[in-house]
Structure to design on (228 residues):
């Protein structure tokens, strides 16, 4: 059975802290790993990772994929209250049809 | 950037009626569209995958006769919740992809369905 597991499920930090969110996956026909940020409505796209070991950065956020160990991490440095959200990772699989399997998400709360 | 428009953003309907939700890709051709539902404080659960011009592929446990999906063009997919019941109340989100783009998957803003 395809599965994507995120940890921790919930995290509370103070502004300025650095956080690392984890995502492991076991899926067939894996193609890419995607990270999303979800606040009150639909998720917004953060990163797509296809190659192993290549870090992607966007401001204070960065992410990397390890295709050998089947996991990815999302780092957020110097957190701000606006970073409070649910962070979702998803494994994109390409079989006879495309499929995206989401993890449960990590609820990040950044306190002032 | 790529935009996916979903309509309506919220709807209230009575039990037994049907509701149609539209998902449009505004500036790219979406070869594949995904439909998800999300219950409070839970992750997105894939309901079905639709490819333009072919029948949708439904996930296990999703009733295809209840959740009708049509993907008649490269820019429009619709989800119709037929004979809605209160337990169908949920947040429904579509996403669209054209896998030749760098950022392949964008989501609509979702539809909050409440069945009374």
């Amino acid at each position: 059975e395809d599965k994507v597991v995120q940890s921790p499920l919930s995290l509370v930090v103070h502004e300025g802290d650095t956080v690392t969110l984890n995502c492991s996956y076991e899926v067939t026909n894996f193609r890419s790993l995607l990270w999303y940020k979800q606040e009150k409505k639909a998720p917004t796209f953060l990163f797509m990772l296809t190659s192993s070991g290549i870090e992607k950065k966007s401001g204070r956020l960065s992410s990397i994929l390890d295709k050998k160990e089947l996991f990815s991490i999302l780092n957020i440095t110097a957190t701000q209250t606006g970073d409070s959200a649910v962070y979702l990772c998803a494994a994109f699989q390409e079989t006879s049809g495309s499929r995206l399997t989401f993890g449960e998400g990590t609820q990040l709360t950044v306190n002032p | 950037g790529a935009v996916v428009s979903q309509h309506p953003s919220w709807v209230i309907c009575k039990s037994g009626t049907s509701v149609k939700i539209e998902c449009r890709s505004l500036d790219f051709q979406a070869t594949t569209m995904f439909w998800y539902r999300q219950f409070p404080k839970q992750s997105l659960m894939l309901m079905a995958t639709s490819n333009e011009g072919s029948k949708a592929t439904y996930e296990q446990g999703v009733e295809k006769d209840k959740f009708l999906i049509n993907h008649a063009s490269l820019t429009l997919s619709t989800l119709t919740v037929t004979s809605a019941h209160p337990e169908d109340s949920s947040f429904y989100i579509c996403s669209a992809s054209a896998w030749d783009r760098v950022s392949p998957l964008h989501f609509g803003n979702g539809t909050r369905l409440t069945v009374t």
About this structure: The mean pLDDT of chain A is 92.
